[in-house]
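Hey, can you fold this one?
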Amino acid sequence: MKNFVIVGTSAVGKSFLEDALVATGRFVALPKHTSRPPRLGEDPQKTVCLSSPEFNRLSQSDQFFFTLTYAGFHYAWKRSDLTKNRQKSIVLPLTLDALAPFLSQNPNFVPIFLRLTLSGLPLLRRRLSLRASPDLDHRLLLARQEIKKNASYSALVQSHHGLVFTIKDDSTLPLKVIPAIIAYDQK
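Sure. Predicted structure:
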């Protein structure tokens, strides 16, 4: 059993991959804790929304094994959840810019990079449009900037014996990525 950290641009399929792997019964997702307000329809078992003072209290008492800041809010994962699930394969999605610090603190995680190229931007636009993303143009701009760093992210992932996948369409995750991760986990 291995632990996996999934990274890629927004709307590339990180959460879909996390849910699909958990649905196989072979993997477990750790709840994330955040200082942002809850979103409509959000599962409170998967995303635990805390007040900023409560988040800071937990952080200062060393309860989290990793924290990051994204869009002005804090996100973290509890050390006790990691320990409780040490006999299982864990999947944890993160932003691309959090990968290097995460791997330096958690080298036992195998990185999975869901890479997008410029030719994949229409796919990203469609997915973000389906979500009715209010900041669609901004997120597409961010994706373009992240795509320019594909080579460095790929090198980082490969240096940690991870897997890199180019997402070409909606079939890439179920037909290529999920079987490859399951096979890698069984090694």
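The first helix runs from residue 14 to 23. Let me know if you want another pass with a different chain boundary.
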